[in-house]
Specification:
eight-stranded antiparallel sheet, Beta-galactosidase, Chain A, domain 5, 296 residues, mainly beta
């Protein structure tokens, strides 16, 4: 496992052995607490001062090298799901199961920023996939949370899909609503869903939900049970994905508690399906997500 020199860390950030003995960086500043594992560069906590935790992690998540953490903010790239041609493995690409390298950090007016890098040549890239793809990731923990994922194509270019697959802690999936998607077209990937639809009004969840919206504007999660509104603004993102497994799917997932679907929803900053990004050789693309919290 890599080691991190505490001298390279900004004030309020400490290295530790996390769950499963995996290396983790923990943030504790006057504005927020936070946590990010080197495995997948996965953020597993953001708790602004005076608030309850915003990020959700399953009680059954496996913290094992080479295994995606169920919860937090997994990084899905360089493809989403099985890829646009449905022929890619593992699902959601190899970024989220690779060991990232800590590349430094600093304190600023918006909080503490931590930076990570990933080089395909040093990762477990599936056979037949290019090994010269690179990733850079920056996370700023403060009163707001900002995550920025940059993917750089190798010599052959890249048909990129990506997502910052954010799991959010909520009071109950059956009582929240998601504002900002009215009139937006989406692909419904859940069982029984139609391929292409248009959102009518605010989104409420009544069954398994797996929707890819072609949407670039802000989205707000309204959770009256927690008396809070959580707003997502994005740059470089053509898609937003909403996911909740509901009862049957949750029961089928070994790293997901049977009843835990009540307490989470995913709102993902993405470039997926029709929103993919075509990169020429050596070209880069950055997706940025900013989360802000206020009382409902």
């Amino acid at each position: 496992m890599p080691t991190i020199d505490p001298a390279t860390l900004p004030d309020g950030v400490t290295p530790a052995d996390g769950q499963g003995g995996l290396p983790v960086l923990r943030v504790d500043t006057p504005s927020a607490r936070g946590e990010v594992y080197l495995l997948g560069a996965t953020v597993t906590d953001w708790t602004p001062a005076g608030a309850d935790p915003v990020i959700w992690v399953s009680s059954r998540a496996r913290f094992e090298a080479g295994t995606a953490i169920r919860g937090g903010i997994p990084l899905c790239a360089p493809w989403f799901g099985p890829g646009r041609r449905k022929n890619k493995t593992p699902a959601h690409g190899w970024f989220r199961t690779a060991e990232w390298t800590f590349a430094g950090g600093e304190s600023g007016p918006d909080g503490v920023t931590l930076r990570f890098t990933l080089v395909g040549a040093g990762a477990d890239v599936p056979d037949g996939e290019p090994t010269d793809v690179r990733g850079e990731y920056a996370v700023t923990f403060g009163a707001t949370l900002t995550t920025a994922l940059t993917v750089t194509a190798g010599a052959d270019g890249l048909d990129l899909e990506d997502a910052m697959h954010t799991y959010l802690a909520i009071s109950d999936a059956e009582s929240i609503r998601i504002d900002g998607l009215d009139g937006t077209r989406y692909a419904d990937k859940a069982p029984g869903g139609r391929a292409i639809n248009a959102q009518s009004g605010d989104l409420t969840l009544t069954r398994e939900t797996d929707r890819v919206y072609q949407h670039t504007g802000p989205v707000t999660l309204v959770d009256e049970g927690k008396n809070r509104r959580l707003t997502l603004t994005r740059e470089g993102s053509a898609s937003v994905v909403i996911w909740n497994p509901w009862q049957a799917k949750a029961a089928s997932l070994s790293d997901f508690g049977d009843d835990e679907w009540h307490g989470m929803v995913c709102i993902e900053t993405a470039n997926a399906l029709a929103g993919h990004v075509e990169l020429a050789a050596g070209e880069s693309h950055t997706s940025t997500a900013t989360w802000s919290l206020e009382s409902a």
